[in-house]
Amino acid sequence: MLGKPRSVFDACSLPALLSLTFQSLIHRFQCDFSKVMQDSEPIFSDFSPALFPVYYEVSVIMFTCDICGEIVASEQDMKTHLLLTHMENEVVCPFCKLSGVNYDEMCFHIEAAHFEQNENERVMEKVNQVQCRTPDRKTEKENSHHYKMEVSEDVYSACASNDLKFTDHSHSKDTSLKRKAFHSENLTELRELQENRLNLYDLTEINKSLSSIPECPFCGKIEPCNEDLETHVKTKHANLLDTPAEGRNQPFYECPICGLICTNYQILHEHIDLHLEESHFEGVSKGSSDLELARQLQQEEDRNRMSEGSRQEIEEFQKLQKQYGLDGSGGYKQQQLRNMEIEVRRGRMQPIEFHKRKADMLESLAFGIDDGKTRTSGIIESLHRHYQNEAREVRRVWLSTGVDHFYSSLGDKGWGCGYRNFQMLLSSLLRNDSYKDCLKDISIPCIPKIQSMIEDAWKEGFDPQGASQLNNRLQGTKAWIGACEIYSLLTSLRLKCRIVDFHKPTGPLGTHPRLFEWILNYYSSGREGGLKVVCSSKPPIYLQHQGHSRTIIGIEERKNRTLCLLIFDPGCPSREMQKLLKQDIESTSLKQLWRFVGNLKHKQYQIVAVEGVLSSEEKAARMKASQIFTAERIP
After folding, report:
1. Which of 10, 404, 412, 569 is catalytic?
2. Residues of the domain holding 412
3. Is the link from the previous residue into 635 a cis peptide, with omega within 30 of 0?
4. Model pTM greater than 0.85?
């Protein structure tokens, strides 16, 4: 079908109008029809409607080209127009620019591929029909000031656009002509109403496909309003809106990422670029998140390692605190009472004895004097007799001045060796007249009293580093003391002391022969005499090694030139020490005193030896020197 016939109506009441030629009518219709629709002005303004009250209806069959909208007079002219203007191979779809098909195929394509656009046109036609069906009924006087214009229902737009359309469904099947009158002002209002409805309809359709934010679905650009977004999409992405023609053997391109079918390579390329950009941003974000996650994991691992290390350090520190009596479990008094209660529960002590010993302990603590229950005296004198009469294997022996042995009691068992060795050393010094001035009004103190004396020495300024390590507190604790604390205490009593550190072995198999030589020189003082037993005027020596301390009371020189130390160990029970008071001392009892070179294999030994009395100035100088405690090192 080449064209659709349209009916055009014109009104005229003069014979001169009837004499107008058909061509002139067509020409004037083509020139003035649009002007009638826009300006609402009558075509024939030179005729007065008042002079011609009767209207004649003239019907002319016209043909309008569906492609370009041109109006021709006959079917033959329409064919000529199509051949000259629209060759079959140049028919182009007004929606997707499809070409190369004939007219019937193009009609089928529009109905099949662009159904939505045609549906929109139908909706608008219905709106137009509703607006046009109600004629404006005014008085005859008002109608005399306006010309009437009748429009056939078959007048259509040349393309599928939103142009204004007027239809009249009141005509009969015999194509009888009807006329409808439209005032110019009503026609203008009708156009404005229809345009507003068209705009509203377009915005509704856009809102259905777009979100509340006007963002371009192709490039992501955000426009200030939906109208600008629609313009942007139509101008910038018109090729993406094209609908592929059906029935043609054109290649399709599938997106390798999401599987979207594209009609040409350019669309596919732009589509994949969008994927790549999205992947890039996601990759950057993911990389940043991975880096942050790695940093968090590393920080968490560091915290766990630090917490684990801190936990281990705390456990080790607690073990050391418990080992050295700084765990807050009480001191001498608490341990004494606790162990006596255990003895009572085990049946080793009667309740009466428990209360008696408790009273004696409280009295001893109140006066600060040792109760003497673990003290053994007279051993040096007994040993002198023994070496005089027996000990044929001994070539010579040197003994210290008289000294008492003190054994650890229930109150200090496991940690009180340093305090017991100080009691042994002090018992010897109290027998020596050279030290009476320094030790006047002093008796053998109990262990809590010794702790108080060391704290007083710290308060004077001795060994601040050692005091800090023990939290400046000994009373009420089971803290161990060593050579440094003994040195500070003796120096605070104005006793001239010497501390020597044998920091590493000096003989084979980890032995310390230099230690034995030093002690021999200390007691012998280089004087060789003919006496087998030499009772020296020198006090015993405090000997310290890791975990324990003892008191050296003398040294033997055997006939084979080997040296053997004579040692009081505070861990030796009093009943064993009392065996040395017998007239005939058995060799088995002496073994607990002997220490040969091969018996002392600790890595380090320290000794504290008293060599005289200090003046006040010397005491102050040594106190100042103890701020950074140093010892004489051998070798």
Report:
1. 569
2. 332-633
3. yes
4. no
497 is catalytic: no
Boundary of a domain, candidates 208, 236, 259: 208
Inside any domain, residue 307: no
Label residue 122 by pLDDT band (50, 70, 90).
low
Cα 10 from Cα 42, distance rounded (Å): 11
Count CB neighbours of 542 within 10 A. 26
| Total tally of structural domains belonging to the chain | 2
Residue 128: phi, psi to the nearest 5?
A: -65, -40
Strand pairing category for 632-633 and 605-613: unpaired
Catalytic residue among 93, 132, 417, 446: 417
Q: Active site residue: 171, 548, 572, 602, which one?
A: 548
Burial 594-633 (b: 16+ CB within 10 A, else e): ebebeebeeeebbbbbbeebbeeeebeebbeebeeeebee
The reply to whether 569 belongs to the active site is: yes
**What DSSP designation does 434 have?**
G
Q: Regarding predicted confidence, which is higher, 277 or 378?
A: 378
CA distance 580 to 566: 13
Tens digits of residue pLDDT in 49-82:
443 344 344 445 678 887 777 888 888 888 888 7
- In whole angstroms, what is the distance from residue 389 CA to residue 387 CA? 6
Tell me if residue 446 is catalytic: no
Domain boundary among 193, 208, 223: 208
DSSP type of residue 151: B
Which tens digits make up the pLDDT trace of 234-282? 787 776 665 544 445 667 788 888 888 887 878 888 888 888 877 666 6
Let me know how many helices (H) and strands (E) the chain has, helices first.
Answer: 21, 16
